[in-house]
Design brief:
Aspartate Aminotransferase, domain 2, 2 domains, 15 strands, 400 residues, aminotransferase, EC 2.6.1.44, alpha/beta, four-stranded antiparallel β-sheet, binds pyridoxal-5'-phosphate, Aminotrans_V_dom, Aminotrans_V_PyrdxlP_BS, single chain, Aspartate Aminotransferase, domain 1
């Protein structure tokens, strides 16, 4: 029995429903952000992130910064690219437009490779683009939250390494990490960035990023200073031997992330102890079971939802099964029905769906998230409730 006050089940594609223990971790008494107990918790978070991302390479570097998923884009643009560099942005919806805009903010030229709505750029198109120009980074949205399109990372990364080996493979995993399988080392990814409020199941407010040793080397080889302050890795990583930092006094040459992981106090900017506690609990819960089981739970829940949607006579935006995310579903509404015709009625039945987000078709579809405790907690019936509510809401407007 949940200790949370009764509330509609939040089934938008993030933030999601939270486990009681995760929420309760946030009511931790105040403690020093450089005191041993908190530093130890932060250290656990960083080493557990390595497990979640399935990396054992000591050169990989996890970052946890106060901020939202968007801060991950800023970290990539500010630290791994320099003004004048080129980025190839694979477009599967709204979030690629925003990532491209972020690059442009930092003076980086972003070329978008677009697919039809509900589809993803094909490997032969990516290969052609990579052969035409030298790109410093390629970015891909693992699950595009605006369309429910899933991108295939393994084959994509293999292609990039074969055709353009110097190009860094950057994954926006905001709507995937914790729900979709990611093998950071095995798939030779360079950056996976995410946020806490989706499949990780922790309140919003932390930007989580894993960088490969190769990405860190690219960062260290920069000719120019990162054009961000808070998000600059020079403030979060060690720098004693690095010429980039010689202008800083020795005492300021920081190793914040490594120190935390080694459970040594360190400071650059004050972290949020309460959020770090919540993330610690969420990660320990996730890792208490084999990750494969967690990913299988998300796949199974997704299949159940998608079958139920089809039984209601509805289609998905992502039409090809291999393009369909396991963490969410973008549901196309019957002709003439718009999100305001159903979303308020769904809310009255105790479930919160999201409206459309892709600007060209926003009025034609709704989105349902299926991540975290709504999928893994056998005592919850959020998804059954969501499907029943959708059936009833459509019937009420003569659509079932
Ligand atoms: C795929 C994707 N990338 C990036 C973001 C931005 O994350 P945030 O809203 O936490 O800044 C989101 C947010 O929903 C997202 O779904």
């Amino acid at each position: 029995m949940s200790s949370q006050p009764p509330h509609p089940a939040l089934l938008i594609p993030g933030p999601i429903e939270f486990d009681d223990a995760v929420l309760q971790s946030m009511s931790h008494y105040s403690e020093s952000h450089v005191g041993a107990p908190f530093v130890s918790t932060f250290g656990d978070v960083l080493s557990n992130l390595r497990k979640l991302f399935q990396t054992t390479d000591p050169a990989s570097q996890p970052f946890v910064l106060s901020g939202s998923g968007t801060l991950g884009w800023d970290q990539v643009a500010a630290n791994l690219t320099e003004p004048g560099d080129e980025a190839l942005v694979l477009h599967t919806g709204y979030f690629a437009d925003s990532f491209a805009d972020c690059f442009e903010t930092y003076g980086v030229k972003a070329t978008q490779l677009k697919a039809a709505i509900g589809d993803r750029p094909q490997l032969d198109e990516v290969e052609k683009a990579l052969r035409e120009k030298k790109y410093k980074v390629l970015t891909v949205t693992h699950v595009d939250t605006s369309t429910g399109v899933l991108s295939e990372l393994k084959a994509l990364s293999e292609l990039v390494h074969r055709v353009s080996p110097d190009t860094l493979v950057v994954v926006d995993g905001v709507c995937s990490v914790g729900g979709e399988e990611i093998k950071f080392d095995e798939w030779k990814l360079d950056v996976v960035l995410t946020a806490t409020q989706k499949a990780i199941g922790c309140p919003a407010g932390l930007s989580v990023l894993m960088a490969s040793g190769r990405a860190i080397e690219v960062f260290k080889a920069r000719k120019t200073r990162p054009n961000s302050y808070f998000g600059s890795w020079k403030n979060w990583l060690p720098s004693k031997t690095d010429s980039l930092y010689t202008y800083l006094p020795q005492s300021n040459r920081l190793a914040v992330m490594q120190n935390y992981e080694a459970k040594k106090a360190s400071y650059f900017a004050t972290p949020s102890p309460q959020l770090i506690h919540a993330l610690d609990t969420a990660l320990k819960q996730i890792l208490s079971r084999p990750l494969d089981q967690r990913f299988a739970d998300h796949r199974n829940a997704s299949q159940t939802v998608k079958k139920a949607i089809a039984n209601l006579g509805l289609k998905q935006l992502a039409t090809k099964p291999e393009n369909q995310a396991n963490t969410m579903t973008a549901i196309v509404l019957p002709e003439g029905v718009t999100p305001p015709d159903v979303v308020p009625s769904l809310l009255k039945k105790g479930v919160v769906f999201a409206g459309g987000l892709h600007k060209e078709i926003a009025s034609k579809y709704i989105r349902l998230g299926h991540m975290g405790v709504s999928v893994t907690d056998p005592d919850r019936s959020d998804l059954t409730k969501a499907i029943d509510a959708l059936r009833e809401s459509l019937a009420e407007i003569g659509q079932a």
